[in-house]
From TrEMBL:
The keyword Disulfide bond does not apply. This is Uncharacterized protein. Belongs to the short-chain dehydrogenases/reductases (SDR) family. One of its GO terms (biological process) is rhamnose catabolic process. It comes from Knufia peltigerae. InterPro entries: NAD(P)-bd_dom_sf, SDR_fam.
Length: 260
């Protein structure tokens, strides 16, 4: 298959649904070989099976495999990279997508809730990035790390005081790693989605007309879709962004610039 990701091997964490799933499909349509990470529950295993069936329907020649594991476990990062190398011989791009998001008033946030968000959203991404880039350095051919952050990393959100710092940490990791490993040709960029309709935030959007409220806050007048984020991920994983590193891209429908 032709495409801007042809001959690239890409690992995507949290690929069973939402942004991860849409990103996998978008990368596949551009010719990428994929390692699809998921948690390993009965539901995510079923979802990954359905995703792989859809990938085969796109093109039977597409190469893809799945890998399950909890990203907060110390061994998961190394095991994921070993799966990638064992299946395809190398790793060209990592897309850090796995994450959690719950809503809570600031004074109701417990230490356990804060630490859970930090471990899943930041610490796991950090260790995955470390393991992936060790492999990229050994290959000597560069690479790309794309991390899904959030608009909450750069704008206030009263119900996300425990979540926003974890995504701000992703931005910090992005710029620091871009500086540290640029000499190896490895690029680091982040995507900051606005409000995206996924199963993760469905309950919040269904409550008290939040879907309409959040859509009205955007310049485009609609909420985002996982596919909106997937396009940006493809760009950062591809050679089209070969001179872009240490950056974050807001994909928010204009929410960050719309003050009406």
């Amino acid at each position: 298959m032709a495409g801007i990701l042809r001959n690239k091997v890409i690992a995507i964490t949290g690929a069973s649904q939402g942004i991860g799933r849409a990103t996998a499909l978008a990368c596949a349509r551009q010719g990428a070989d994929l390692v699809l990470h998921h948690l390993g529950t009965e539901q995510t295993t079923s979802d990954i099976g359905a995703l792989q069936s859809e990938l085969r329907a796109i093109d039977q020649s597409l190469r893809h495999t799945s890998f399950s594991g909890d990203v907060v476990l110390p061994e998961t990062a190394a095991n994921l990279v070993a799966e990638v190398v064992g299946s395809f011989g190398r790793l060209d791009a990592l897309i850090n997508n796995a994450g959690i998001c719950t809503f809570s008033a600031f004074h109701d946030v417990t230490q356990a809730l804060l630490e859970r968000h930090m471990s899943v959203n930041f610490t796991a991404a950090y260790m995955l990035t470390q393991a992936a880039t060790k492999q990229m350095v050994s290959q000597g051919t560069g690479g790309s790390v794309v991390s899904i952050a959030s608009i909450a990393a750069v704008q206030g959100s009263s119900a996300l005081t425990h979540y926003a710092p974890t995504k701000a940490a992703i931005l910090g990791m992005t710029v620091a790693c871009a500086s540290a490993l640029g000499r190896h040709g490895i690029r680091f960029n982040s995507i900051c989605p606005g409000t995206i309709e996924t199963t993760m935030n469905k309950a919040h959007l269904d409550h008290n007309g939040q879907r309409e409220v959040m859509a009205a806050k955007t310049a485009l007048g609609r909420l985002g879709t996982p596919e909106d984020i997937a396009g940006a991920a493809v760009f950062f994983a591809s050679d089209l962004s070969s001179y872009v590193t240490g950056q974050y891209l807001l994909v928010d429908g204009g929410a960050s610039i719309h003050y009406e």
